[in-house]
Amino acid sequence: MTKWLGIDVGGANLKLADGRNYAHSSPFELWRHRDTLADAIESLLADAPAFDALAATMTGELADCYETKAEGVRHIAACLQRASADRQLAVYCVDGRFRDAQHVADAPLLAAASNWHALARYAARQLPERTGLVVDMGSTTTDVIPVVRGEVATASQTDTDRLLAGELVYTGAGRTPLCAIVRELPYRGRNCPIAAELFATTLDVYRVLGSVADASSPTADGRSASVANCIDRLARQVCADRESFTLEDAVEASRYVQCAQLASLRQAIDKVAQPLATSSVAAVVSGSGEAVARDALQSSDLVGEVVSLSDRIGQAQSDCAAAAAVAALAEEM
């Protein structure tokens, strides 16, 4: 039997998984390093366990190093083809089919932003014959995907479609700038307007609160994700520093951001769940921000049972769920 490895090429991370025992996520700023993408993929594949064929999905085509999404898809597919060497390459498309690199080059938009569809097909198996949601929260975005009787149930094809439908929320547990979530922070009894600068991200918030263990996302200032450095970055949002901003200040500010982010997620969850709901719907939750997404789901009156994908396949596989999904789907192909 062919041994498949899955890869998810995003704009900020490269994720690999086989759907069983191996999973690995590596930060890669595609918009800065597009010319070394093939080398980066080749290096990661060389360090992975032996495999026969590569199943791929992508969202990196939206990176602004490409003038169009079609250009991005073609470049990513070409890099995958080069890195996979003489192995079979199958690229997942939003119609649920796998295609080779040449077919993807001929019809690139079929492969654009395809990872959510693969993930939903795979994760929805946890809700056989049921109606519900698949919610995957990563470092940058959150997918809220409706499923009916274990099948993807949306007419959305593009990311723009999904933004309009509430099925894509551009907020994550790692890379989202705080100024994209709130315009002020509590500071010693008053609400202080914040700087519209990339001083701190949600990684800092959840490191301070201790609710997300993954500290692999790049930080706003390039320093480590130690709690002390997170506090420094949060201080900058109110134009302060460590001499005038304490751990207590950071915790209060972080809880405020957390509440705002959960409210935006809950709004999207309710929007997608409303047409499905009779009494309540079930949900599968996954991704490196699973803990945050679970809190949002449990706060919704429209959601009942919440199934953790990490409990079923392991945290590492869940963090790289789209890569695990294409590996499993390709093996069944």
List the helices and strands and how they pair.
Elements: E1 4-9, E2 13-17, E3 23-27, H1 30-33, H2 37-47, E4 53-58, H3 69-84, E5 88-92, E6 98-99, H4 101-106, H5 115-123, E7 131-137, E8 142-148, E9 151-152, H6 159-165, E10 168-169, E11 184-187, E12 190-193, H7 202-209, H8 227-237, H9 247-273, E13 281-286, H10 290-298, E14 303-308, H11 309-313, H12 315-319, H13 321-332
Parallel strand pairs: 1-4, 4-5, 7-13, 13-14
Antiparallel strand pairs: 1-2, 2-3, 5-6, 7-8, 8-9, 8-10, 11-12
Please provide a written account of the structure.
With 333 residues, this protein is α/β, with parallel strands linked by helices. The protein has 13 helices and 14 strands. The strands form 3 sheets. The protein has a 6-stranded mixed beta sheet, with helices on both faces. Strands 7, 8, 9, 10, 13 and 14 form a 6-stranded mixed beta sheet that branches. The protein has a two-stranded antiparallel sheet with strand order 11-12. Helix 2 (37-47) crosses helix 3, helix 7 (202-209) crosses helix 9 (247-273) and helix 9 packs across helix 10 (290-298). The model has no long low-confidence stretch (mean pLDDT 95).
